[in-house]
Amino acid sequence: MADRRLQVFHAVAKHLSFTKAAEALCMSQPAVTSQIRQFEEQLNTRLFDRGHGRITRTAAGRVALDYAERILDISAEL
User: Which pTM does this prediction carry?
Assistant: First the structure.
């Protein structure tokens, strides 16, 4: 029931990989990247630092992950 972008963000934040998140969600990697871009635009902040083939969560990304986990847990409970 949770927003798809939130689910995609959660997967990327947990795997710290767009490719692994895409595999886990049965999506293409470009689709995952697009969803993350849209989510960052919606929140008006960067959630990940990207570089040298690796990603890390920004401070905002760490806060967003905490909220995402709570929202997804509540959604599953519902």
Answer: 0.91
Report pLDDT for 17: 96
Residues forming beta bridges with residue 56, ordered by sequence position: 49
Contact of 32 with 12, CB cutoff 8 Å: yes
Tally of residues, the chain: 78
Q: What distance in Å separates the CA atoms of residue 52 and residue 68, rounded to the nearest whole number?
A: 26
DSSP code of residue 45: S
- Beta strands of 26-76 (E only): which ranges? 48-51, 54-57
β 54-57/48-51 pair status: antiparallel
